Every structure is written in C-alpha cells, then in structure tokens.
Amino acid sequence: MFFILSLLVPVLEGCDRISSSNKNVVKKDLTRILKNKELKCSSDTNQEIETFRHHWKKNPGRYSELDLKDRWKNVQLTLYTDEFLFINESQDSLFVPAGGECILKLEEEFCGDVLRFYATSLSKGTSELLGEGELQIFLDDKKIFEQNLKPQKLEWNPYILPLEFKNVGNLKTIVKTDLQNPEIWNQTERNKEKNCNSDVFLKIRWSSKTGAGLFLGSPYILEKRNVEKKNVILIVIDALRQDSLSSGGSPFPTTPILDSFSKDSIIFKKTIANGNWTKPSMISFFTSEIASNLGLGNAWFYTSAQQRKIFYSKKPFTLPNAFRKEGYFTESIMNNVFLMDYTSVGVDLGFHKIQQVGKDNLDTEELVSRAETFFRDHKEDLFFLHLNLNTPHWGYRPPSQFLQELKKKSDPLLWNQLDEYQQKYLGEVRYTDFLLGKIFDELKKQGLFDNSWIVITSDHGELLETSHYYHHHFIAEKVYAHGETHYEKEIRVPWIIHPPKSFLNQIQKSEFSDQVSLLSLMPTLLGLNRISYPKDKLKGNDYSKAIFGEKGPESEPVIYTEGRFSESILTPDFKYIRRYPGYDLVRRTREGTSHKMPEELYDLIKDPMELENLANSNFELLGEARSILKENQLSKNSFF
Question: Which of 133, 139, 199, 285 shows the greatest Cβ crowding within 10 Å of its Cβ?
Fold first, then answer.
C-alpha cells in the first residue's frame, strides 16, 4: 500500500499490438543517477553517517559507482520491522542528513510522471532509533509536498507523488488508499495542456531540529509507457528435487497444481544447479558465473569482508541490475540472508527492495502473503520479483493435513517403503504446491498470470537416500541434507518457464531434454524479453533463441558444480567428483570407519543411479574426466 498524494496521474490509451502493453516504467532511478551528477545531493554524508553507528544494518550502495568521498549518499538500509517473524526490510536508499537537499533537473517532459519512494527517519547519535523532521519537495520554487515524519516504529512508509504544479495545501492530509485505484490513474485534460518541456528542477529538502537523518528508500520516477517487455516472476523453492514433482518422476501425487501449470510451460527436463547449497547456487544463477570465480568461495556460511571486496571489484552483471537498467522495479521477498550485505554472510545483488522473513516454519505463509500484496500494489508496473520459498528445506514440518492427504492418495505399498523423514519431505512438497496455487490465483485475480514470465526453479536438491550417505566432517550430520555430495538427487532441480499468453504462438520449442545448468537462467530470462547484455560477462547459454525457433544452443555438454571443498563435472556420459586435498576423509556412516575418497567417477550410461565408483578401476575414463575438469574448473586466484 502507498500513501497517495494526488488523484491526477495519467493512463495512456491501449495499444493494438498483442505483445505490448501499458506499464508504469522506471524513468529515473535516483540512486543510480548520483554517479553522473544528474542528481546532486549536498552535505558530507560520509561524516554524517558516523553519527548513525547505533543502526548497524546498513552498507554503502554497491552499484551507484560513487567516489569514496560520496559513497554514503547511497545506502542499503535495513529495518528490523517485526521481532516475532524476524522480518528485515531493506531499501536501496538516498541518505539526506539534516539540512540536506537533493536536486534533479527534469529535462524531459514530466507531466504525468510520478515520484515514488519509501521514507524513514533515524535519530542521531543516541540509543533512540526513531527520528523526527520535515520533508519538503519542490518543482523549482513551488512546494508540491510537505510531510512531518515522526515514525512510531521502525518501518518504511510508502508514498507516490505526481510531478505537477499544484497547491501544497491539498497535500496536508495524507490518505492511505489502493495504489492502483482507477481514479488515481485517471488522466485529465488539464495535465495534457501543461507545458512540461521546459527545464524544471525537482528539489528534495530535509530539516530536523534534532539532527535526524532522512532515508528515502527506492526513490524513482515512473512514467506510463507502452512496452513489449513483460513482468518476470522468479519463484525459487529451496531444496526442491526434480524427482519430487509428480511430473518429474515421483510416484506420489505431490504437485497437482504445478503439474497443471507445466502443461503450457517451457520445461527443462535435466537442469543442474551450479552449487550444491544455497549461497554458491543462487549467486551463480543471479550472475551467470560460478560464485567462487567472483571471490565468494564455496566452503563456509559466512562471507568475509575480503570476499565481499573481491566480489564487488569484479563488477558482476547481476540479474536485478540488468532489469533495473531496462526500467523494471525489482524486489526480493525471501528467507535468505545470502542476498543481504550487512549480515556478514551475503552480498548485495542490486534489488530496489528486499523483504526477508527469518522465522522458520512460519516464514512461508508470510512470504506468500507479502507476495500477494506485492502483486496488488504493482500490477500496473513493469517489475521483476524474486520470491524464495523456504519449504521443503529441512526440518520437514508440513502441516498435518497435507501429509495426511498425500498419504491417503498414495499407493500404500510405495508410501510405506519411505521412512518418516522422506514422507515429511514429500508432505512439504505437497504443501508448497498448495501455496503455489494461492500465488497463481492472486496473479490471475490481478491480471498478471497471462501477462508475465513465471519461472519455477530451485537452488539445489536434497539427499534422502542411505545409499548415497557419506558423513563428512563438518556439515552433513545426517542422511537428510545438502551441501556435501554431488549426486544427482542433490543437484538436479526443476526449471519451468510459464510464458505470457501473447507469446504462446511464438514458442517453437517448449521441451529441453538434454542437460542444462542454472548458469543459463539469467541470459535466458533476459533473452525472452529481448534485453541485451555483455556476452563476456555471462557464462550460461541463452535458450530463448531455441525457444523462439532461432538458431541457438539447446544444451550444455559439460556442467561444473561446486560444493563445500569439492567440485564436479557432468557430461551426458559420466560424472566426476573431486574433493579438495585435506577434505577428502569420509565415513560411510557417522559412526563408521573413516577412509579417503578424493575422487568419484560414475559411468552414467551403465550406472545412472551413481552406485559404482570407478575412480580406482577405470583409469582411462578417470584421465579423461580429470582433463575435462581442468578445462572447466575455477579460475583460482584470478582476483588476487
């Protein structure tokens, strides 16, 4: 929900082209135009930010490319807004100290454009977090907005302000209402007649008697524009195995909703994650580069200051940044600390806004609820949403009705062969499928289901079989885990793309049977929207060419995956796994006798279940595998 400051925002006439539509597009992304001085902000923010040390959930913006002396003009600020659900809300923000001003020259026609932002104020140099002050916004010297900010709790208050000359007296009372109310977006003849071509300065001023600081979250100017690009909704389901889907080979009715969704979708039947646990996998598909090649490493949960420094120095081309450059509003709704810089475990990937729900078990329904709110608030916008559902990640606690329903509808002979945790895992999958149904229903209600690219995938699978259980010496203390092995069950994931309805007749290839990897997710999503990108920055393939019937790749002959102190390559014929020296001791069970297993090699033609390790017997194949790994492994120390 946004605070609406006027009822005079235009809607343009529709377009006859099937693949285009009117969307609210980001015209000026204010934190990103600081670097070229297009937006000029006064005051010494580097000095002023020191007085806000008590609020530690912040870091300088990583993609505004500001000089060091100005780097705190752009702040990634995170507010802890809910102590019960452990909710952190992060915004890519402008920092305006007391007495500060930001000025933007509006050189293009701006009538009908709107300024959208979130706002909060923090106190200066005290244990009291909340601050107070007055925010004023001008067009030249005409005040078009004023608001006394006196937050009662830590929160981001949203606003939308039409850029038009009008009497500020009408803005004294702020009414909270639906952003997409048709009356709000009703164009008037008075706006059409205005001369908006002359140069006008937008001025944002902040004053505070107590020295409180203003943080404007995700400030940008929107314009209504006819665009061919479509919204992109990326739903990542944590620890979802490909074979846990009914349509993916499961003998149990786990995913009736997702199965129906898949019928009109593009299916990648053999998709491999490039990391066997969350951090390296997600970083790889958000950048189309192996995470360790960006300096992050693959071993530990935390991310050191040195690793973050290396990561940003490599200037990765991230998926959120790619969409931002094209006028998309970008948001992540998730339970995933790896996408938040201040946490000491993650990095900033360039989203406008992040909502992180940290309460296990209660997180998933809250995430879905927040996604539903997002769809209502942004249904007229051009957006990229990343939604990360934490089920069916361990600890496998599905609501009982879903577990009982699945048991009732399953073959009892097959069901009773599963142990308790395998049953609960599948119950979690069934529960997640139900929640996907709620998401799809809301998308249909808001008119987004048939007008968006909707993507379903996972960051990794899950190890559930005792035949593949090896106890390692730090993470995998049980059979049911991930992050330690490179067997298919742990790294093979779903990848499903549901196209906008207007694209159905353009799709020439909807099924990819050969192996692909999630390195190709980013270039493919950009390709589907005809968004150009630097080819040398992305390692994956753009499968949109094949999807649209053009000449282009349809598979990846060699796929590299990294894990904790381990790596693997997959070809259509074999898999080779290598553990790093010093980390190759394993035990068949936790109590078993330890032995070294530095290498594993499986002939996938004869042994698709990966049960017979040939590393000590088939030396010819081992030599070939080592050679291919050498050609595809990490660019070690390339960043030092």
Answer: 285
Cα end-to-end distance, the chain, whole Å: 46
Give me the residues paired with residue 357 across strands.
87
CA 402 to CA 493: how far, in whole Å? 22
Half-sphere exposure of 36 (CA within 13 A, CB side): 7
Taking the C-alpha atoms of residue 490 and residue 458, their distance in angstroms, rounded to an integer, is: 11
Structural domains of the chain, count: 3
Residue pair 429/240 in contact by the 8 Å Cβ criterion: yes
**Is the same domain home to 324 and 454?**
yes
Scored b (16 or more CB within 10 A) or e, 248-285 reads: bebebbbbebbeebbeebbbbbbbbbbbbbbbbbbbbb
Q: Which amino acid is at 640?
A: F
Bridge partner residues of 16 (DSSP):
none
CA dihedral sign of residues 464, 469, 474, 477: positive
Per-residue model confidence (pLDDT) at position 517: 99
**Beta strand segments in 501-640, E:** 511-517, 559-563, 566-570, 574-579, 585-587, 594-596, 599-603
CB atoms within 10 A of CB 616: 11
**What stretches in the chain show pLDDT beneath 50?**
4-18, 168-193, 476, 637-640
Q: What is the pLDDT of residue 17?
A: 34
* Residues spanned by the domain of 147: 2-79+90-226
Selection from 506, 496, 393 nearest residue 440 by Cα: 496
The torsion defined by the Cα of 106, 107, 109 and 113, in degrees rounded to 10, comes to: -20
Q: What is the CATH number of the domain that holds 136?
A: 2.60.120
Indicate if 337 and 360 belong to the same structural domain: yes
Q: What is the pLDDT of residue 191?
A: 47
> Does any domain span residue 323?
yes
Q: Give the pLDDT score at 640.
A: 40
Paired with 204 in beta bridges are: 102, 137
Looking at the fold, whether 299 and 445 belong to one and the same domain comes out as yes
Q: How far apart are CA 139 and CA 613, in angstroms?
A: 71
User: CA-CA distance, 427 to 255, in Å (whole number)?
Assistant: 10
**Is the pTM of the predicted complex or chain greater than 0.90?**
yes
**What is the pLDDT, as a whole number, of residue 4?**
47
Same domain, 101 and 188: yes
Residue 299, pLDDT score: 76
pLDDT digits (tens, 9 = 90+) for 558-605: 999 999 889 999 999 999 999 998 888 887 666 677 788 899 999 999
Cβ-proximal residues to 189 (8 Å cutoff; 6+ apart), any chain: none
